[in-house]
Amino acid sequence: MKKRMFMLLITASLFSINEVNAQQQQPYEMTVSGVKVIVQPSGNDIVEIQTILKGGVQNYPANKAGIEALAMTGLSECGTQKQDKNSFKNKMDKLSAQVGAGAGKDYAVIRMNCIKSDFENVWPLYVEAMTMPKYDEKEFARIKQNQLTGIKAQEAQPDAAIDNFANKMAFEGRDYAVNPSGTAESVTPLTAADVKAYYANLLTKSRMYIIVVADLDRMDIENKVKGLLSGIKQGSPFTLKKSFFRAYKNTFSTDTRELATNYIEGVSSGPQPGAPDFDAFNIAMRIFYDRHFLDVRTNNGLSYAPQVRFAVGATSVTKINVSTTQPDKYIAVFDKLVDKTKSGGFTEDEVKNMKASYLTGVYYRNETNTAQASALASNELLFNDWKRTNNLVDHIKKLTPAQISDAFRKYIGNIMWVYQGDPKKVTPTLFTNGTLHKGDNPVMQ
């Protein structure tokens, strides 16, 4: 009874949110000096602006991995042509504002956040950081060392290490094998001059679009963006390449490590953004996460925190993670669960509850201007449709149990497994010759 009341409260909250959104000014897009600007009125006094630079790991070769991450960090950490780092940061601190940047697999983002009353003072600093970075030698040495330290920390952290290992094996020879942070071998030789030259080529209108989540006058936005873009070159046309991942057979790769437990990650297929069954598969994997957790941890006690996730990007994949002292028992449980799910599908109650839970989570996560801007940015890049951010509820509501079950059957088949730990504790043939080796993955891409 309590669960049913909770679900009714969730549904009511969703309708309330929709009513509030309907009363606000509608989002819109415009083109300023050849660059798309997407504006989401916020209904509050916070200003969040994100400038997106498309490409991510497609922008540089593997032996330069980490260069874009350094370029982004340097915008706010290495000073500008007008002032040093400390002077710049002191001005930001007085305004309680944020200007920073980061790099990922698909794009880099340069963002600012402030209260509306400080916008006129923060905007010039944002433009200065983006268009006049200095990449001071001394400060650059500091941020490079910090990045190298972070890379070492990733390798020492089992969850990050197994994921990097899985990406390297699954995407061998492809852009997605690259870690945006780079490796010690790729980052160490990079100089401030290298990064400055790289950023100068990256900062082009052709790779750019801008997200504004704020209650600002349209003409003011247009004029400010026009000023920002006045000194930025057009650049060559760029389109983010999307690719489909498929494991044509079950594989198993081992990396021997002395760990308290053994770490396993599997990589399988998933629909690309824009595919007709994308949303159905997204819901399917969330239900399967719950089933997997129940079977692996609760019923069999094989792992503390087993995970299944749909990793969405220019190359979207399913990832299965588990740390366990009994890997052979785990794969037996996993294979049985997948076969059961394929044969029986998902129930109406599972689908109904997950739809409500998922949509509530979306609204909860998007309560901040920053989260809303990030959602607009990713939907524009991956789906070529920023409006999907605000229409998602309609897509999810229409899904049926049959569509969700069919999506699972379509994409979950052969799996590329990787293992870090004691090789004596695992039997690789159980992973390569399990029930999934039958090749019953009907994906046709």
UniProtKB/TrEMBL annotation:
<comment type="similarity">
    <text>Belongs to the peptidase M16 family.</text>
</comment>
<protein>
    <submittedName>
        <fullName>Insulinase family protein</fullName>
    </submittedName>
</protein>
<keyword id="KW-0732">Signal</keyword>
<feature type="domain" description="Peptidase M16 C-terminal">
    <location>
        <begin position="190"/>
        <end position="357"/>
    </location>
</feature>
<dbReference type="InterPro" id="IPR007863">
    <property type="entry name" value="Peptidase_M16_C"/>
</dbReference>
<dbReference type="Pfam" id="PF05193">
    <property type="entry name" value="Peptidase_M16_C"/>
</dbReference>
<dbReference type="GO" id="GO:0046872">
    <property type="term" value="F:metal ion binding"/>
</dbReference>
<dbReference type="InterPro" id="IPR011249">
    <property type="entry name" value="Metalloenz_LuxS/M16"/>
</dbReference>
<feature type="signal peptide">
    <location>
        <begin position="1"/>
        <end position="22"/>
    </location>
</feature>
<dbReference type="InterPro" id="IPR050361">
    <property type="entry name" value="MPP/UQCRC_Complex"/>
</dbReference>
